[in-house]
Amino acid sequence: MWTWYSVRKNLISFSEQEPKLINDTIEYNLKLNGNELCKSKLVDFAEILNMTDFLETATLDFEINEKNTNTSGGEKQKISILRALYRDTPVMIFDEPTSALDLQSSEKFMNYLEQIKDNRIILIITHDEGIIQRCNSIVRLGY
């Protein structure tokens, strides 16, 4: 029997617009569920977000400080998105996922979501008209 906790843990992944990372390594922030990371799978998702160079330079052992000041907003957002993609859950929720990303990373990310959208539920909260135009269904709030 599913509990709400197990549903959230196993079926839903979420990426915030302004993620708060834990004062620990990048690897720990990516594998919050405690499982070991598959490096090849991680590299594939890092490529989608143009993070390969960052992960090679910073490495997975790079320690994020307590106030998250040693990573940029884009890097934090990419780590959060990478964690959601890596979990590969049936339901993915992204809050303003491209707000701190460069154009190339945004385009690659959106292309990837288009490739996988038939096999899962993807919810995107956004003000970005370019993303809105690519969505199958749109729900406008506050109008």
Keywords, please?
143 residues, mainly alpha, Rossmann fold, three-stranded parallel sheet, globular
Secondary-structure element string = HEHHHHEHEH
The dominant shape is: globular
The proportion of strand residues reads: 5-15%
The secondary structure category is mainly alpha
Query: From the alpha-carbon coordinates, what is the Rg to the nearest angstrom?
Result: 15 Å
Task: Provide mean pLDDT, rounded.
Answer: 90
> How are the strands of the largest sheet arranged?
1-2-3
What percent of residues adopt helix (DSSP H or I)?
Answer: 40-55%
Ends apart, CA distance between termini: 39 Å
Examine the coordinates and then state which fold CATH places here, giving the name of the CATH topology: Rossmann fold
Number of domains: 1
Q: Please tally the β strands and state the result.
A: 3
* Uncertain regions spanning at least 5 consecutive residues: none
Note the main sheet.
Answer: 3 strands, parallel
CATH class: Alpha Beta
